[in-house]
Write a structure and sequence with these properties.
Elements: H1 4-75, H2 78-82, H3 89-120, H4 129-147, H5 159-168, H6 184-190, H7 194-197, H8 201-212, H9 218-235, H10 242-249
Helix pairs in contact: 1-3, 1-9, 1-10, 3-5, 3-8, 4-9
Length: 250
């Protein structure tokens, strides 16, 4: 005959074991789910950091590219150029000086952000590998359009010259982990420094020569503008930011 007390004791032990197993299973599930959620959280955090990093460089690059493309369209427009060759000598000289310096700045600013972007391109994320490759290709296409030695050499800059100008335009007062381009004010002030200005001398001469003969550099300027348009389309496929940038920076 079974001892009731012994039976109750065995049942109590069994229940205790079941409770312990349930507790352990619950703890294991909690640990597994917690680890899974933590991995997802870290993955999303890294994705957001990459997106933020991409925005940090692609935004200024887009602004610089669209600003330069807008200026090149202006200088290829004969009506626009008339403003710089006005019969009013004082007015004409003022506009010409502004046009030269400001065009130099737009070229330099674009090359600056290419320089900065090229140093960080390995960590830029345009959304997928194909778009990342397209970014590199389109940056290279603009570089080739500028450095091409076909036809007239007005506005031609070799690859090393482009890199040097971009490096010179990096703001030395910005921290290394947050680079940026010098302002237009700083740029104009630095043109008084012969060591800085000499890098822009050939471009300055090209702009002055181009104004007196609009056809001489048109093929190159057209090729550069088209390459910039392709880059802009990649960076801003829906055309959200480019019109705004051009409206304030043309």
């Amino acid at each position: 005959m079974l001892d009731p007390c012994s039976t109750l004791a065995r049942m109590g032990n069994a229940l205790a074991v079941i409770a312990a197993l349930t507790s352990v299973s619950g703890a294991l599930v909690t640990v597994v789910l917690g680890a899974r959620f933590e991995r997802r959280r870290l993955l999303e955090q890294r994705r957001q950091e990459r997106r933020d990093h991409t925005d940090r460089y692609s935004g200024p690059l887009l602004a610089a590219a669209s600003s330069l493309a807008s200026r090149l369209r202006n200088v290829m427009d004969p009506e626009q150029v008339k403003e710089f060759s006005s019969e009013d000598e004082q007015r004409g000289q003022r506009y010409l000086g502004y046009a030269i310096n400001e065009t130099l700045y737009r070229i330099g600013r674009y090359l600056c952000w290419v320089h900065i972007t090229s140093r960080h391109v390995r960590v830029l994320d345009m959304g997928n590998e194909e778009r990342n490759r397209q970014l590199v290709r389109r940056l290279a296409a603009v570089q080739r359009a500028i450095s091409s030695r076909d036809g007239d050499l007005t506005f031609m800059l070799l690859g090393g010259e482009q890199w040097a100008l971009g490096e010179l335009m990096v703001d030395p007062d910005r921290p290394a982990d947050d680079p940026g381009c010098i302002s237009y004010v700083k740029f104009v002030d630095r043109l008084d420094d012969p060591k800085f200005a000499r890098w822009f001398q050939s471009l300055k001469q090209d702009i002055a020569a181009y104004i007196s003969d609009l056809e001489r550099a048109r093929p190159r300027l057209t090729a550069i503008t088209e390459a910039l348009d392709d880059l802009i389309l990649l960076l801003d496929p829906r055309g959200i930011w480019v019109p705004f940038d051009e409206s304030i920076d043309a």
